Amino acid sequence: MDDYGISGYGSASYGESFADVYDEWYENLNDLDFVEYVAHSLPAHLVRVLELGVGTGRLIAHLLRLRHHYEDTIVGVDASPLMLQHASRRSFPSRVHLEESDFSHSLPEGPFDCVFIGYNTIFNLPNTTAVGKCLRLIASVMSPTGRLYIDAVAPNGQGHGDHIGCKVLANGEKVLSLSSHDPTGQRITGQFIQFDTTGHPRFRPWSVHYETPSQLDDIAVQAGLHLGSCLSCVMTCT
Questions:
Q1: Phi and psi (nearest 5°) for 218?
Q2: What is the C-alpha separation between 126 and 210, in angstroms, rounded?
Q3: What is the pLDDT of residue 99?
Q4: How far apart are CA 180 and CA 160, in angstroms?
Q5: Domain coordinates in residue numbering, the chain
Q6: CA-CA distance, 29 to 140, in Å (whole number)?
Q7: Per-residue pLDDT tens over the stretch 42-94
Q8: What is the rounded CA–CA span in Å between residue 93 and residue 171?
């Protein structure tokens, strides 16, 4: 068992497992308001923007719609080649660049006026050390007036243990959901098992290691970020 809590699981595993169904399964995630907050916070001139964990490019597409009056340079990175393949099919303008990278190891060259990380993507990193490395890298590529925006929901710590669920998709396929929450280690691991109409299974594993808002604040400060001016939009459930 490795840093992710699942044997054989790595930085690209989530994307490789979910790229083909991500937009369909999570179309009702209700996170576009986060991108709207980011867009409305940007200055009324051209900026350079970096998204970490770009996935299928859904959030960048929304940002482009909101900032259609400006030809911003936007860079999206993801550790999953398959996710990037799906993002490239959106036919983004040439000022949008997609790069393969584990964003706890390396980032594109800055400076960036804005860095944003969509819903719980930062918790896809395997541990606190990786989160710290990521935030230090962000601090190194941001402009002096740059801002970092993170959209995240941390569990309240009470829903520990194992959970099982099942749902039926519109096409009649069944999806079994298994998960295990370790509040002491602040890790949740899970598996979606999707059965096609012939009963053949497709396994889609996932793993998150979450931080509380106060822990994330502490890591950000240690990374050289300044709360209130660089780090914004951290949310938690009650």
A1: -60, -45
A2: 9
A3: 98
A4: 7
A5: 13-154+211-232, 161-209
A6: 31
A7: 999 999 999 999 999 999 999 999 999 999 999 999 999 999 999 999 999 99
A8: 34
